[in-house]
Amino acid sequence: MTSSATHSLASSAGLRLAKYSLGVGDRFAHQARAQLRACVMASQRGVEIIPVWNKSNREHLIVGSQPGSVRAAAEIAVRELAWARPFHVDADHINLDTVDGFLQSSDFYTLDVAYAIGQPPQPSAIDAFFDRHPELLRPIELQDRGSLRQLSRERLAEIAAKYLFATQEAGKIYRHIEGALGTGAFITEVSMDETDTPQSPAELLVILAALSDEGIPLQTIAPKFTGRFNKGVDYVGDVAQFEVEFRSDLAVIAHAIDAYGLPAQLKLSIHSGSDKFSIYPAIRRALRDTGAGVHVKTAGTTWLEELVGLAEAGGDGLGLAKEIYAEAHAHRDELCAPYAAVIDISAERLPTPQQVKGWSSQQFANALRHDQKCPEYNPDFRQLLHVGYKVAAKLGQRYLDMLVACEDSISRNVIANLYERHITPIFLAGDASA
After folding, report:
1. Which CATH number fits the domain that encloses residue 121?
2. Does residue 113 form part of some domain?
3. Distance of CA 136 to CAs 4, 140, 265, 310, Å?
4. On the chain, which terminus has fewer CB atoms closer than 10 Å, C or N?
5. What is the mean pLDDT of each run of 10 residues along the chain (434 residues)?
């Protein structure tokens, strides 16, 4: 791609993602109204947070739903709450094999190319990348973050060899979607987070340069950070190191926007961002200091709040929650296998189904709700149920009917979880130094 073509990316972005956005998963398509209510509450505080309903192909296959059901649920919630701001529907973690099923209902596409990281590109592709980007071999000054260490030709070749094929795959997926929907008709995110090692600032810059070469008007990118982002529980790692990386990545993005003509609204995406409470103050400080935006995906948190709501409703709701746990416990190896890299469950710390059978509503809710100050909170119990939504899916209409019967209890928990535990500390907290 020529320089002039590269610098057309910003103007061709078309549909624009707002500065702050929140990915909200709704695996059983019953909580869109409650999720949107949390965004309404933020808007009443003067902060616009745009909901992005996300659901992956794997989740659709497990639940037995179709991609169009996500937009249908979102549109009903938008209409009932008279939401006049934008909203989006994310075809989450798609590739060329799975994207076509989402083309009629999604306007946001998370291109998952982690599988291609480390696959070698053609040697000629690396040579061409060097020819296009001699600036990457010179010192690069980053706003407020000093300079990137000058890359040697050998080091740049290593980075290109690791990531160039993945960016080419992203280009193929993007152009496929563009051919179906048209330029500027959708928002593009690229996911690089599901890999073994975090990307350095230099690696992120190379990735962004290569994505620009592919002609992708990228609006959000999900790199891998240091530490573990396990499903549904807090961040495990060095929070200070995360903050250094997060701020450095913000600086790299700001530089890449200017250097490669990427859309001005390009921002970081935090995948598995739900419940990472310990890093929220760091994110908040960085957003305050830089004026940057962020996209945070909360994924399966809503499903867990459904279970909390069922438990608090008591009676049949509590009984069904206990039944789901018993079945998940019996099939824990099968349920955990697909998520092995993003969960950390000790079988010894899991309560037995017989113990749970004797629990009160409050005991079940306390064990599951992510309140680290509560002595009854059990992160192993929570993680198992997080990956156990397949059990509820097999219950079919019986589970869905219970969601309707316990709507008041469930929606109260869904709203409180998103607004109080996620939106407030990231976007609304008055004192970001905490």
Report:
1. 3.20.20
2. yes
3. 18, 8, 23, 55
4. C
5. 48 83 96 98 98 96 96 98 98 96 98 95 96 95 81 96 98 98 97 89 97 98 95 96 96 96 97 95 97 93 97 98 98 94 95 98 98 98 97 98 98 98 91 39
